[in-house]
């Protein structure tokens, strides 16, 4: 048992309690905090926009998927914190941009046209695409994009679910 000083009493006597939880030293704690924050932020978006989100975003975040929400103009309004790990860009630096900023000279034009066509028709899509990190390094990314409806049934946003491929 490890004795950790809990507090000092009025008589300046140290009291000790056992340290039962090692979460404070767990390297995965920061990741769990990020996931928790992402879930809260996404739940706030769901409530404020009155979305009917038909995907289990919580399990996707836990499984290390990156989530990106855009408006109908395809401008980013929110990203999960794993977006920075995958791309090198902070969320606050990309709000207002379209995801096409991640594409580069070797990104397949047919894939780009496929995505554009599906989004124009408010259709769900799944593909893989060659994207580029902030440092210029390319990476393959699996991407699924879903239109998001509000409670009236109107499509108001898109959510992209992305995962880097090895």
From TrEMBL:
Domain of life: Bacteria
InterPro entries to which the protein is assigned, alphabetical: PAS (IPR000014), PAS-assoc_C (IPR000700), PAS-like_dom_sf (IPR035965)
Keyword terms of this UniProt record: Chromophore, Flavoprotein, FMN
Annotated PANTHER family: PROTEIN TWIN LOV 1 (PTHR47429)
One Pfam family named in its UniProt record: PAS_9
Residue ranges of domain PAC in the record: 123-166
Protein species of origin: Emticicia soli
Classification via Gene3D superfamilies: PAS domain
Listed name of the protein: PAS domain-containing protein
Classification of source organism: Bacteria, Pseudomonadati, Bacteroidota, Cytophagia, Cytophagales
């Amino acid at each position: 048992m490890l004795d950790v000083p809990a507090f000092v009493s009025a008589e300046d006597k140290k009291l000790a309690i056992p340290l039962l939880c090692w979460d404070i030293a767990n390297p995965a704690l920061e990741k769990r905090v990020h996931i928790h924050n992402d879930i809260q932020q996404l739940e706030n978006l769901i409530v404020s926009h009155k979305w009917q989100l038909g995907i289990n975003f919580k399990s996707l975040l836990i499984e290390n998927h990156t989530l990106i929400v855009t408006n109908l103009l395809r401008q980013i309004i929110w990203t999960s914190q794993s977006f920075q790990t995958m791309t090198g860009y902070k969320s606050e630096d990309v709000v207002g941009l379209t995801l096409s900023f991640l594409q580069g000279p070797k990104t397949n034009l047919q894939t780009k046209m496929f995505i554009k066509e599906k989004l124009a028709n408010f259709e769900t899509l799944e593909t893989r695409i060659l994207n580029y990190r902030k440092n210029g390094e390319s990476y393959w990314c699996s991407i699924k994009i879903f239109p998001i409806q509000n409670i009236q049934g109107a499509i108001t946003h898109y959510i992209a679910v992305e995962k880097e491929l090895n």
